[in-house]
Structures are given as structure tokens and as C-alpha cells.
Amino acid sequence: MTHAYSTILSPRVADKVAVGTVQILESPHVSEGPGRIANAPVPSVFHDDRGSIHRLKVGNQRINLSFSGEGVMRSGYFHNLEKSVSVLSGEVEIWLLKDDVTDKIQLKNHQSFAIRPYVPHIFHFPSGGAVLAEWWEPSSTTDLQCWFYHPYRRIVDVQNSLVSRSTGHHALLVPQDVEKLCQTDAAQPSVFRGFLSWTTGLVMGVAIGAVVTSRHR
Predict the structure, then answer these.
(1) According to the 3-state scheme, what is the secondary structure of the chain?
(2) CA 125, CA 32: separation in Å to the nearest integer?
(3) Global pTM exceeds 0.85
């Protein structure tokens, strides 16, 4: 169960953007978000003073697991695919843009919420650290993309400048070309079995030859 309430942004956004539709990309308040989500290394862990983000891919599913400290804000952007959010511990306040009004939704332990495509949003953690799981609905026709919504992103940047001074760093977990690596690993047992059969036959041949030779002595 969630609880929602609304508040007017201050300052108010000058135009009414086409929230929830691809036409939002025409707004002067929107720009591409390079290095966000789709372009970040996967799998990897990003650390800074705000907390950490674990970027994973399980099968075709993109998943983020994140920890955020007290007072931290995240996001300030939107995606072209639906995103689901689940609170594993703590609580989060989700800001969602609706025309020139912001809805704020409170989520606590074990509560979940879906954010529609092309809807700008902010994650705010006002009362302590929280662990979130985020995942995007996979698509066979388009890749996951991200855009900044600058009125929100400015709020996030200003708030985070008060709680974090570090630039952060990525830690790559494993080689990114996992599929090719798995194919290589899958091919190795058959090669190994062939080599093992060959060496076993050679050893057995040598042993039998030694026995036959000793009997003729």
C-alpha cells in the first residue's frame, strides 16, 4: 500500500511537458543522460559518499541494487522502459512529475511501485539509509535509454552537494562479454575430454607395452 500527496514545484516549470509520452523529448528541459544506466559498465559497483549502486544483468533483465544514506537524492531523469522499484529495507520518497505538479509517494519495507516510461522522477531518502531494487521491463525492439529532466536534476544536484563531496568510482565485477566467456567455458569440457581420452589411451598403451616386454624377458 502506498500513500500519495501532491505539492507544486518551486519554482514552477515554465512549460507543461508531455509527461508519460515520447513527446516529452521535445521539451527544452530534457537532454540525453550520457553514462547513465545503459552506458554504465555492467556488471559493476559504483561507490561514493551517498552510498553505492550495484548494476547487474540477469538473463535479459537489467537490475540495480542500491544503498542510499540519509538525505540523499537520486535520479532526476526518466527512461523509455517501465521501471519497477522495490524497497528491501528502509524507506524512500518517490517524486513523480505530472504536468506541472509533483506527486510524492512514500514506500517502506517490502513495498513496490512501477514508474511508467517517460515519467521524470526523483528518489529521496529523508529519514535514513535504504536499500532499493530497480529493474526495467526487457524489450526486444529497443534498448534501455535515459534522459535528464533538468528541473528535477538541479534539485538532486543541489541536495547531494550538501551530503556528498566525492566524485565516486566504478568497480568492474567481471568481464563484460559474459556470453562469449560462457560459450568459451562451455566448449572447454569437450576439448578437455578429447585430450583426456588421448592421454589415457597413450598411458594405457605404454603400460601394456611394458607388461608385454617384461613377459618376453
Answers:
(1) CCEEEEEECCCCCCCCCCCCCHHHHHCCCEEECCCCCCCCCCCEEEEECCEEEEEEEECCEEEEEEEECCCEEEEEEEECCCEEEEEEECCEEEEEEECCEEEEEEECCCCEEEECCCCCEEEEECCCCEEEEEEECCCCCCCCCEEEEHHHHHHHHHHHHHHCCCCCEEEECCCCCHHHHHHHHHHHHHHHHHHHHHHHHHHHHHHHHHHHHHHCC
(2) 25
(3) no
- Residues 85-112: tens digit of each pLDDT: 999 999 999 999 987 789 999 999 999 9
For residues 202 and 213, what is the distance between their CA atoms, to the nearest angstrom?
16
Contacts 24+ apart (CB under 8 A), 34-41: 36/77, 36/146, 36/148, 37/62, 37/64, 37/79, 37/144, 37/145, 37/146, 38/143, 38/144, 38/145, 38/146, 40/170, 41/170, 41/172, 41/176
